[in-house]
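Minutes, project huddle
Topic: does the predicted pose make sense with S-adenosylmethionine bound?
PN asked that the exact inputs be recorded in the minutes so nobody has to dig through chat later. Recorded below.
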Amino acid sequence: MTFLFVLGREPKISLAELEAIFSSSKVKQIGANLAQVTARTVSLDHLGGTVKVAQIIDQPIQDFLSNLPTGKITLGISDYSEHANPRKTWELALKYKNLLKRHGRNVRLVPNGKSPILSSAASHHNQLGEKTNHIEIVKYGKYTGISIGAQNITAYAKRDQARPARDAFVGMLPPKLAQILINLATAGAKTGTVLDPFCGTGVILQESILMGYSAYGTDLSEKMIDYSRKNLDWITKRTPRLQKPNAPKLHLEPGDATNHKWQLTQPDFVASEIYLGHPLSAPPAEVKLKALQQDAKALLVGFLKNLSSQLPANAQIALATPAWKRPDGSYSGVNILDEIDKLGYNAIKYHYASYDDLLYYREDQIVARQIIVLRKK
Ligand SMILES: C[S@@+](CC[C@H](N)C(=O)[O-])C[C@H]1O[C@@H](n2cnc3c(N)ncnc32)[C@H](O)[C@@H]1O
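Predicted holo structure (tokens), as shared on screen:
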């Protein structure tokens, strides 16, 4: 089957995530924030970088609409084409509504307002693609698809904001970015154990078990292990499938990532956000920047050296590492690319995203996250 993927705020990172899961040959960028993907199934809830997915249809849309099951229809249209026009999109929606009415159907249209596209929030709140007869037609140039759903922003917000154990100093990773790191590391594997050696409050561990992987978390701080345990108990209590006997397993213990032996279980993948250093409110001066880079590099190299002998060959590692804003607005990170070979790894390359493209940040952030993906030799 062929799908249209509407990509999130960082389209290149989203494309890398899709390449990791579906392989590069199955992913084709067709617009600034759109990709065409050939796949058997899509788990939208597990994709951090995609905001909406539609299945491309080969029959005329009129035929598709005429054959919908009985009952009331909720209909929306999003036209992602470059020169799409809100008025024309609305006229098309009215045309389809009239067609359905002629077939005796009761239709509610979801208004587009001033845009030819429905935001993923509007699609999600109207349950478009999620319930029978809640239809969103997704257009892009010659492509027409029927939505299979939009990102569940309500569930993300709950998983992010309602967690019981939080820490003001250990900035929490957004769940969407945690999913992206997990997908970059697991690269389409359906089972296995994800190790997070800097687990903090446990966002990556939480998202791993929700995606069906077992999770192994370690952290230098006993307090953080305690926070992770509290947060993971909380998500397990509110997720019935995590309480079943065959549910993913969870392992937690304190440990310094630069010398710990991960022996509770064999990790298959590593997804982690390493210590990013103290939060900053302004770009650091050049001397300070050099010191921050040196500290982060020592930690990263120490960790990768220790990890190397403990992973099976070909295991993948996706890391968020710090990159600091400079006064000119550019970001400068920790360059370890020259050393990864002697540490026992190769860097993974993506067709649609260069190393520099894998920088995750918001304009107002001083410390950004540079994503690095490695494979154990
Ligand atoms: C950026 S935080 C990770 C945040 C985590 N992703 C989350 O969402 O909660 C980094 C964590 O690294 C831990 N840490 C710092 N140095 C460490 C080391 N040498 N070994 C293991 N953990 C370390 C800190 O205690 C902190 O919890």
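Observations noted during the meeting:
- The two ends are 34 Å apart (CA to CA).
- Residues 170, 172-173, 197-198, 200-201, 203-204, 219-221, 224, 256-258, 273, 275-276, 299 surround S-adenosylmethionine (CB under 6 Å).
No decisions taken; revisit at the next huddle.
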